[in-house]
Design a protein that fits this description.
The chain has about 160 residues and is mostly beta strands. The chain is built from 1 helix and 10 strands, in the order βββββββαβββ. The model has no long low-confidence stretch (mean pLDDT about 95).
């Protein structure tokens, strides 16, 4: 068996601003919350721009094991006008105490919990068409006003 080291390259830092959480409560799938995206920005060496407001949300699922599963759709607009659909799924887990602190809107060090996502991209822009063919990973930090991710292209 050949073992290969995973290699990556920083794609961008993304800060997502959020509207108030809409709590659907306990559904057949689990405790469902809809978290509308109110905007934000992303910046990296190869692309930068804004997250469009009112064009995205997280269908957050509180699972029976205490973890949270993200299911996100949002629209990015680069500083040169290209539109990029970004979708990702991910998971956040922490101790019950840390989850309670995050739910109260407290600042919690990202080393106190696990927040990882797998973003994928879709665009027709010739300049950014390479995004359609990559796999990426996001490492997140939940903040009182939103979420920040460091997103890496997996090479």
């Amino acid at each position: 068996m050949h073992v290969c080291d995973l290699k990556s390259r920083h794609l961008f830092t993304m800060t997502i601003h959020l509207h108030a959480i809409q709590d659907l409560g306990d559904t057949p799938a689990g405790n469902r919350r809809v978290v509308p995206v109110s905007g934000g920005e992303f910046q990296g060496e190869r692309l930068r721009g804004e997250i469009l407001p009112h064009a995205g949300s997280d269908l957050l699922l509180g699972r029976a094991d205490g973890s949270f599963q993200q299911d996100v759709r949002m629209l990015l607009r680069t500083d040169d006008g290209a539109l990029i659909l970004m979708t990702y799924r991910g998971v956040r887990h922490a101790s019950p105490d840390i989850n309670a602190r995050i739910a109260r809107g407290e600042s919690v060090a990202p080393s106190a919990y696990y927040l990882r996502t797998a973003p994928f991209f879709e665009t027709s822009s010739p300049r950014y068409v390479w995004l359609n063919k990559i796999v990426s990973v996001g490492i997140g930090e939940r903040r009182p006003e939103g979420v920040t991710y460091e997103v890496f292209e997996i090479l």
